């Protein structure tokens, strides 16, 4: 049996400039997605909601309205060049990460599938290559408008400063350098003063990113200035602050990041409501943790009980305390 797991993540600073060659600080979660492979003569896919399908031909790897929870695993198999009939195993997926919540749950699940199948077929790659392969599948096969933060956090894990200079969907994949991933976790005291609150509004990150991204592609001067210059500097300045334990500065930078997203209409009413509630109840910083238009809010608070109680009263769904965890793991029994 092969078991692979990968973590979710929350964007601390700089998002969404990982789509635009920018810089971010991101924290992995203890919540993880899991893929288990057991021996089988057939190629069988199964999700934790009970959906199950035997894959007989390449056509079976296309998205299906009948088995939507299997679409991510199918995309990974397709992207890895797996040919039905030439390999057999029973692949099962499950997750602890809220899906469509701005916490990279889909990417974590894809990373777990990629890791497990790679082990099965004997594919060995370094972490940067794995992150690049997962991102290519997400962007080219699933057609998701996405950056590079999610895939790198699923693979590397931890608490990282990441620089995506000269990377972007508008640049050919083979012309892009690898990202710079700088681990911060060993230099930052735990526990981190963060709380995550899900708005209860599910979203598709590609749909959330699309309107502002089109403005960026159209060379809108406001979007270009904010995403090319202003927001990436927040993460670069945040690196110094977080290493010095200057949480007040981190909070101020988070608030600036959120103000940019609000200004561009990329935040959303549900996010804005929880941000306001958090800041009025003990939090000194609050921002969206992912793409926006729903999803999850990240709060920096030294009064977590007070902040959490207010968020729940305001209608927040699941509450998570971010605990950085390792990236993609693969074990074989």
Q: Your description of this structure?
A:
By secondary structure, the chain is of the alpha+beta class. It folds into two domains: about 1-185 and about 325-330, Ribosomal Protein S5, domain 2; about 185-320, GHMP kinase, C-terminal domain (Alpha-Beta Plaits), CATH 3.30.70.890. The protein has nine helices and twelve strands. Helix 3 packs antiparallel against helix 4 (about 150-155). The longest helix is centred in the last third of the chain and has 23 residues, at about 220-245. The termini are close together. The relative contact order is 0.19. GO terms for molecular function: ATP binding; mevalonate kinase activity. Keywords: ATP-binding, Kinase, Lipid biosynthesis, Lipid metabolism, Nucleotide-binding, Transferase. This is Galactokinase/mevalonate kinase-like predicted kinase. One of its GO terms (biological process) is isopentenyl diphosphate biosynthetic process, mevalonate pathway.
């Amino acid at each position: 049996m092969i078991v692979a797991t990968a973590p979710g993540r929350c964007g601390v600073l700089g998002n969404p400039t990982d789509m635009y060659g920018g810089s971010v600080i991101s924290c992995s979660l203890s919540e993880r997605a899991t893929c288990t492979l057991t021996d089988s003569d057939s190629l069988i896919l199964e999700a934790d909601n009970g959906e199950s399908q035997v894959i007989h031909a390449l056509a079976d790897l296309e998205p299906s309205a009948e088995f939507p929870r299997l679409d991510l695993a199918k995309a990974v198999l397709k992207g890895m060049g797996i040919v039905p009939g030439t390999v057999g195993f029973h692949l099962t997926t499950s997750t602890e990460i809220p899906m469509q919540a701005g916490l990279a749950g889909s990417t974590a699940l894809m990373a777990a599938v990629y890791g497990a199948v790679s082990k099965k077929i004997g594919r060995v790659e370094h972490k940067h290559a794995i992150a690049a392969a997962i991102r290519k599948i997400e962007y080219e096969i699933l057609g998701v408008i996405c950056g590079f933060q999610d895939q790198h956090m699923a693979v590397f894990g931890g608490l990282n400063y990441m620089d995506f200079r000269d990377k972007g969907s508008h640049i050919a994949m083979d012309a892009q350098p690898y990202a710079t991933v700088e681990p911060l976790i060993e230099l930052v005291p735990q526990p981190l003063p963060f709380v995550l609150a899900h708005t209860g509004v599910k979203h598709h990150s590609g749909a959330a990113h699309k309107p502002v991204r089109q403005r960026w592609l159209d060379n809108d001067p406001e979007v270009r200035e904010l995403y090319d210059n202003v927001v990436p500097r927040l993460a670069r300045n945040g690196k110094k602050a977080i290493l010095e334990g200057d949480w007040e500065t981190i909070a101020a930078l988070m608030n600036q990041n959120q103000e940019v997203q609000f200004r561009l209409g990329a935040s959303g009413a549900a996010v804005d409501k929880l941000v306001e509630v958090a800041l009025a109840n003990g939090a000194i910083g609050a921002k969206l943790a992912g793409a926006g238009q729903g999803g999850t809010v990240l709060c920096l608070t030294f009064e977590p009980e007070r902040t959490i109680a207010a968020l729940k009263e305001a209608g927040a769904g699941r509450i998570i305390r971010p605990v950085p965890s390792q990236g993609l793991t693969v074990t074989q029994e």
